[in-house]
Write a structure and sequence with these properties.
By secondary structure, the chain is of the alpha/beta class. Helix content is 13%, strand content 25%. This is UDP-3-O-acylglucosamine N-acyltransferase.
Length: 354
């Protein structure tokens, strides 16, 4: 791959220092002064790069690897060529993630769109809004009446922060985002095009067969260290609040309905839809393309497989999959039975043709 000017290499971190900071053990102390500048995949890593390897099935990629070091566990270490130092750890994926934050800090959140620092004269900030020192507001952004924004937060180009919204410190609100009727904590990242705090979807039957809109007067509360992906929508509550718990990470193109409460440290993958008034516990993982019914409870630590349809409550700690979602062992058994039946039908069809 040609040089990437969007994310230029780091000026250099000593390999020994990097090993200590990410909690790994360097196999060869003689190379502790080697400079590490960037991350790269194993197959094309070159001097100055660091890479990681999780599985033996990728060992062929080591044939072309020229990395200055590779992060791996003790099961992979014997496969690594002797010219490549090893950073040994029981958690190579985590260690590599930490290395990336050190080497490419600028890539950790949406970057500035202009070189201007401070409040752009091309932005509109209502006179009644309160911005702490160190807030950045890029051109064409709008800060509504009575909004409050904490120090270190950046509001990117074209973003709209509605009246009365509160945003904490050290947040990044990317280009084209709208945040309405919301309270946002500290160190929150909201990626481009996300919509926070618009109407929830609520209607009652009308007298002549139509639908009457139900008023939506709740809020969205986003706790600290949440990350929300591009073009995700989070509806405000009807009368209660929609809540996103601390440390939760939400991918692109996710729909969170009104009054949903998502716990702490959850992971919700792209194209998930969560219907209104659902309660999701702490540490829940929901695979891409899944749908979660409204007015149900998903317990702490639950894992939902991709493309599942969750129709009813899921007990804490369970792994569910399928449509309708059911315990993973039942889902896999059903899949195996269907595959066997399909195979039997194909064999019978072939026998008839003979």
């Amino acid at each position: 791959m040609e040089q990437n000017w969007f994310f230029p290499p780091h000026k250099g971190i000593r390999l020994g220092d990097l090993a200590n900071q990410i909690g790994t053990e360097l196999s060869d102390g003689a190379v502790a002064d080697r400079a590490i500048h960037s991350v790269a995949p194993v197959y094309r890593a070159k001097p100055g790069d660091i890479c990681y390897m999780l599985s033996r099935k990728y060992r062929a990629e080591l044939e072309t690897c020229q990395a200055s070091a590779i992060i791996c566990d003790k099961t992979i270490a014997p496969l690594v060529p002797p010219h490549i130092p090893i950073l040994l750890t029981g958690r190579p994926h985590t260690a590599f993630a930490l290395a990336g934050t050190l080497l490419h800090e600028v890539a950790m959140r949406p970057s500035r769109n202009t070189s201007l620092v401070g409040v752009s004269p091309a932005a509109f900030v209502d006179p009644s809004a309160r911005l702490e020192e160190g807030v950045e507001v890029e051109p064409m952004a709008v800060i509504g009446a009575g909004a409050e924004i904490g120090s270190g937060t950046r509001i990117a180009a074209g973003a709209v922060i509605g009246p009365g919204v509160r945003i904490g410190r050290d947040c990044t609100i990317a280009a084209g985002v709208s945040v309405l009727c919301a309270l946002v904590g500290n160190n929150v990242i909201i990626h481009p095009g996300a919509r926070i705090g618009q109407d929830g979807f609520g209607y009652a039957p009308g007298p002549k067969g139509g639908m009457i809109k139900i008023v939506q007067v709740g809020r969205v509360i986003i706790q600290d260290h949440v990350e929300i992906g591009a073009n995700t929508t989070i509806d405000r509550g009807t009368m209660d609040d929609t809540v996103i718990g601390e440390g939760t990470k939400i991918d692109n193109l996710v729909q969170v309905g009104h009054n949903v409460r998502i716990g702490r440290y959850c992971g919700i993958v792209s194209q998930v839809g969560i219907a209104g008034s659902t309660r999701i516990g702490d540490g829940v993982m929901i695979g891409g393309g899944s749908g979660v019914n409204g007015h149900i409870t998903v317990g702490d630590g639950v894992q939902i497989a991709a493309m599942s349809g969750v129709a009813s409550d899921v007990p804490a700690g369970e792994r569910y999959g399928g449509i309708p979602a059911r315990p993973m062992r039942d889902f896999l058994r059903d899949v195996a039975e269907m595959a066997l039946r399909a195979s039997d039908r194909q064999k019978k069809k072939g026998g008839t043709n003979e």
